[in-house]
Amino acid sequence: MTKRLISTILLSLGLLLGSASSWAEEGPELPAAGNNLRDQASLQRGAHLFFNYCVGCHSLKYLRYSRMAEDLHLSEQDVMQNLNFTGAKFDDPVVSHMPAELATKAFGKDPPDLSLEVSAKGADWVYGYLNAFYLDPKSPIGWNNTVLPNAAMPFPLWKLQGEQTAVMSKDGKQVEKLELSHPGELTPAQYQQATRDLVNFLDYASEPAALQRHAYGVWVVLFLVLFTFLAFLLKKEYWKDVH
Amino acid sequence: MANAFTRWFDERAPGLAPTYRKHMTEYYAPKNFNLWYYFGSLALLVLVNQILTGIFLTMNYDPSATGAFDSVQYIMRDVEWGWLIRYMHTTGASLFFVVVFLHMFRGLLYGSYKKPRELVWVLGMLIFLVLMAEAFMGYVLPWGNMSFWGAKVITSLFGTIPVIGKDLVEWIVGDYLPADATLNRFFALHVIALPLVLLLLVVLHLAALHEVGSNNPDGVDVKHGPKGNRWDALKPADAIPFHPYYTVKDLVGVGVFLIVAAFIIFFAPTFGGWFLEHDNAIPANNLVTPAQIKPVWYFTAFYAIVRMVPSFAGTAVWGVIAMFGSIALLFALPWIDAGKVKSVRYRGTGYKVALAVFVVSFLCLAIIGMDLTDEYLPRIFGSDIDLTTWDNVIGRIMTLAYFGFFVFLWLYTHLGWEKTKPVPERVTTHD
Fold first, then answer.
1. Where are chain B's structural domains?
2. How many CB atoms lie within 10 A of CB B70?
3. Do β-strands A93-94 and A133-135 pair in parallel, antiparallel, or remain unpaired?
4. Which residues of B lie closer than 8 Å to A, measured between beta carbons?
5. With pLDDT > 90 as the criterion, what percentage of chain A qualifies?
6. Which CATH architecture has domain B31-287?
7. Is it the case that residue B431 has pLDDT exceeding 60?
């Protein structure tokens, strides 16, 4: 209980630092992703979303199926039957089956590997991006995005979110806000939670060691506090000679 | 048993025990060290950490342009405890500069660079210089996009030198752009050449210090004070044996420092993008320039000086000269400052003000180098200001203030303008 409390305090201090920094991105204010790496159920739901909607084009080449199973408490059977659709071995990394030529032909560029996407852009950016698609008849793929204008990616989650359209500013140059013109399978709240889960999973994928860090960190800090206290008592005892 | 053991050693290496005594149990240090005196031993601790963790990183790192980035992720994911070893190394790198900056500032506060410790200071400055080279090369090794562009920008500084500049850069980089050859040689320099130099300099720094003895917050020489303490009738009355008194005191400092370090390592290893930059999560790519190319935080003040000095007479070399000059002047500090009083406690008001201005200018330059002014200036002056102009105006004033410190200090002490307070005979003996 105490351990959990300390871990929460330390972690939120850490997050505070994270949010204080500036990500080298320009553009609209991003909503907070609000994902939580300690929420196992969220990580599992995010993994399912990734392997249903993303892995067709995007790899996680630094993440092994076996490592993911261990960290997310999924059985080998579950992973191999429900998540691994590429015929990869359990110890293989997650590599998309899309041939590079096809990707280049379809989108004009290779879909990027997402192993370190959250490390590079931040969870808020990815979350904002997944919530910022709108129908744009002028775009060659029919979709556009307010977070990453003229993104090459068509919107793979449109069935879940539905279709958003842009309300333009008076001069017609800027997107003022997005409106849900055609609802999808999920309510807006459910869709936000789904993207939060997906971002959570990608956050985990960008640094699987984060789960261990937090678990060990509490004990290390507690040990060091005790060590420092004992060192202080020792110093006081020795320095009686000096004063 | 213990006696037989020490006798065995004494017969074979008669110098060993006296050396230990000279530097530890019979090295007498002033008894009035305060908080500022922790950072020397902490710097030593971080150096040991960097070497130990560095050895283990070397075992799994691949210094090639095709393999470097992947091997870092291999360390982070597949090597047992690899993530911890790497974070200890990356956090250690930044904290090295934190403690070294504070250690150097201590020198400025209490005049530790003054006679008879000029050599200690110069050796320390050499350590700082080598440390900067070591840190820069280490930063290139993960071969992320910021590594690549950082390497390109820093090496191109040498390209501003007239006539030989372009060839010099190619010679340093070993290619037209930072590439495989660059990574190979930076690796060699980072893991063996510079650490050897660094260790040698640290040994000399300590040897030079122990020859003349430590300064203290009062800046009075305990050797010139009364003699005789409870350990030795001939040693200074106001000094105590380094071991065990300062070893046990430094142990408390180590504990506090490790709590801070552990917090960063386990809960905020990127330190919000300051210790490990976000753009370095993208592999090196000479076609994609990061939105902002800026060095790691500990170089930003020096980098800002380069940017603030305008180019004229057809060359931009002046900024680079100014940057190296900003470090070279620190080397010359013992001769620029001719003041007889060491500690800021008893120096003239002019010195106190100048030192404060110097610190503020250094911090402002660091902030400008970090490109944070885009964020702060509009908050202070409103959002419709011209950022570039303001950046340059403030940056140039701060650059002048930085160099002005040395000019002022020379005039102030050489022309006898300084009005000092009386220095006590002995150390003021509280902590």
1. 31-287, 294-418
2. 15
3. unpaired
4. 31, 70, 73, 76-77, 83-84, 87, 230, 240, 244-245, 248-249, 251-252, 254-256, 258-259, 262-263, 265-274, 278-279, 281-282, 290-292, 372, 375
5. 68
6. Up-down Bundle (1.20)
7. no
